[in-house]
Amino acid sequence: MSDEDKALVALFNGLDTPGVSDALDKLGLHGQALGIQPLANYSQVITGPAFTVKYVPASSPPGTVGDFIDQVAEGDVIVIDNNSRPDCTVWGDIMTQYAGIRGIAATVIDGVCRDVNKALGDGYPLFTAGRFMRTGKDRVQVESVNTTVGIGTVRVASRDIVVADSNGVVIVPRSRAREVAETAKKIEDVEAKIRERISQGDTIGQARQALGYHTLQRKS
Q1: Looking at residue 25, what DSSP letter applies?
Q2: Nearest 5°: phi and psi at 28?
Q3: For residues 69 and 154, what is the distance between their CA atoms, to the nearest angstrom?
Q4: Over 70: is that where the pLDDT of 213 sits?
Q5: Would the pTM count as exceeding 0.90?
Q6: H/E run at residue 26
Q7: 3-state secondary structure (DSSP) of residue 128
Q8: Could you tell me the CA-to-CA distances from 215 to 32, 49, 161 in Å, in that order?
Q9: Strands (E), 25-91
């Protein structure tokens, strides 16, 4: 990961996907990856630059499926677009093991994975549209890497910032990362003050009214 990547990732320290989602709404950006769910309830928030992969139906003879992983840097989040295809997988136990060895942060798939016990046992973060046991070999192949792809109705460009946790996945355009992080932190500060006021006896209505809760996520 480059120094610039590390600096952008660091902007999101202490934030989670709900906070980032609120900031995206406030700024009029679409980044919530609909239908992409965590494989488990992860205790941590995963943040990293996207390494994008586009799959297409296999040619004859078929092309490769997983060799791209040798190009992925430590700390990257692999983002795979398999066009929401439910009938064959693009990720399994060997990929999980290798990703863990290489220090890859997580994998996000608009499609399905298999060998989930390996990912669960290793604690490797996977976010997918589902799971299925049928191999993708000879059914799909890698068309391109580090091009723009689609994940759960969201466009993802290479090196966009991915934030993922037990709530799901959000994508932050790289060019707007600083603005999104700053906005999310402002929203989080207001919500923290609301929680403080209700702990001291305010009603939710009182606290929200006093701190402008109802306009927090509204586009400026």
Answers
A1: H
A2: 70, 30
A3: 22
A4: no
A5: yes
A6: helix 17-26
A7: strand
A8: 20, 30, 26
A9: 37-38, 46-57, 77-89
Map tokens 């390494």 to a residue: 51
Residue count of the chain = 220
Taking only the tens place, the pLDDT of each residue in 179-196 is: 999 999 988 887 777 777
Residue 90: is its pLDDT beyond 80?
yes
Three-class DSSP category at 56 = strand
Q: Is 193 left (phi over 0), alpha (psi -120 to 50) or beta?
A: alpha
* Residue 154 φ then ψ, to 5°: -110, 135
Whether 210 has a pLDDT exceeding 80, the answer reads: no
Say which amino acid occupies 201: G
* Percentage of residues in the chain having pLDDT higher than 90: 80
The answer to whether the Cα torsion of 56, 62, 66, 70 is positive or negative is negative
Average pLDDT of the chain is 92
